[in-house]
Amino acid sequence: QLRVVESGGGLVQPGGSLRLSCAGSGGALEDYAIGWFRQAPGDERDQIACISSESFTSYDDSVKGRFTISRDNAKKTVFLQMTSLTLGDTAVYYCAVNHWHYCSGQWPSWGQGTRVTVSS
Predict the structure, then answer these.
(1) What is the dihedral of CA 38, 76, 67, 60, to 10 degrees?
(2) Whose C-alpha in 39, 46, 55, 66 is 20 to 30 A from the C-alpha of 86?
(3) Burial of residue 27, with CB atoms counted within 10 A of its CB: 0-12 exposed, 13-18 middle, 19 or more buried
């Protein structure tokens, strides 16, 4: 079964950048859509970006133009490049594997999350 692990979170100042990684193992990451989600304290977990197996991408309006999702199938890794970070981007970030090629439907496999804190 395909499993994913996130990394790259940390503390960053407003206006700064971070790159998160979602590394896959135990399966063919390249065959599935991968999504990035985030959950701030007291809030629900929201999808913010997704990349299909053919590298079609989609973004939530809250991150569009600031975040970029990409994949390197040779490295079995999906990245989330985050720029122009604001206090509102503080959250735990999760990646998840979709049940098929496209960014819709169910997300049966999740990572443990990586914390991003934006603070001055």
Answers:
(1) -50
(2) 55
(3) middle
